[in-house]
Amino acid sequence: MRSLCCILLSIIVLTSCGTSLQLNRPSESTPASSQVRLLIFSRTTGFRHASIPDGIASIKQIAAAQQVAVDATEDASTFTPANLMRYRAIIFLSTSGNVLDAAQKAAFEGYIRAGGGYVGIHSASDTEYNWPWYGQLVGAYFKSHPSRLQLAHLTVEERHHPSTAKLPRSWTRVDEWYNFRSNPRSHVHVLLTIDETSYQGGEMNGDHPISWYHTFDGGRAWYTAMGHTSASFAEPLFRAHLWGGILYAAGLPS
C-alpha cells in the first residue's frame, strides 16, 4: 500500500512540474521577434552625417513591420553590462571619433563575448582608431573617400547571406565610396566588392571589399560601408541589404 501511495505521489508531483514548466514557456502563437530589441547608437565626435535621422527612421520602420523593438541613443552611458544585455544587436550608425570611455568599452567587449551582435554602418569604421579590439570587430578602419558621390558597380561575392540574398549579382548605385587602411579579406567573409574601374578614387588595388561579416570574440559582426546619403535609406535594395545584416548580427532567421 505504501508503495502504491509513493507511486501516485510521484505521478502527481511530475504532472504538477510539467504543468508549471509548460505555463512558463512562451506561447507558440507569440512571434519570437516580439521579444527582440535592437539598439541604434549614433554618437559622433568627428564628422556628423546628416543622414543619421533617416537611418534611424528607416531601421525603426523595417523593424516595426517585423515586431522588433528598436531603441536609439547617442548617450554613451547606456553602455553598461546590464543594459546592453537587453539587446540582440547594437547598431553603430555612422558613428565617428571616440565615442566610449574605458568602462563603456569594457561593457561592450563583454557584451560581444557573451554572444552579442554588432552592426556597423558607413562611418562606424571611422570610429575609435585607438581601440584595437574595435578595429578587429568592425573589420577595417576608414582611410579616405573621393571628393564627390559617384555611381559605381558592386559585385555580390556571397549570395546566400541574408544581406545579399535579395540583391542582383551586379548592383549599381550612388554612394560615398570608402577606401580602408587595410584589406579585411583575410579575416572576414566578404559579401560585396566594388569595381574600382567603374568610378574614380578607388585605392584598394582592385580588390575592394565594401561589405562583410565575421564572428569575432564570441559574437557576430556585420559591416557595410554604404549609407552616406539620406536617399540610401529609402532604396528598397539597400534597405534589404541593411536589414539582412541586422538579422545576421542579431542571430535571427531571415
TrEMBL record:
<dbReference type="InterPro" id="IPR029010">
    <property type="entry name" value="ThuA-like"/>
</dbReference>
<protein>
    <submittedName>
        <fullName>Crp/FNR family transcriptional regulator</fullName>
    </submittedName>
</protein>
<dbReference type="InterPro" id="IPR029062">
    <property type="entry name" value="Class_I_gatase-like"/>
</dbReference>
<feature type="domain" description="ThuA-like">
    <location>
        <begin position="37"/>
        <end position="249"/>
    </location>
</feature>
<dbReference type="Pfam" id="PF06283">
    <property type="entry name" value="ThuA"/>
</dbReference>
<feature type="signal peptide">
    <location>
        <begin position="1"/>
        <end position="21"/>
    </location>
</feature>
<keyword id="KW-0732">Signal</keyword>
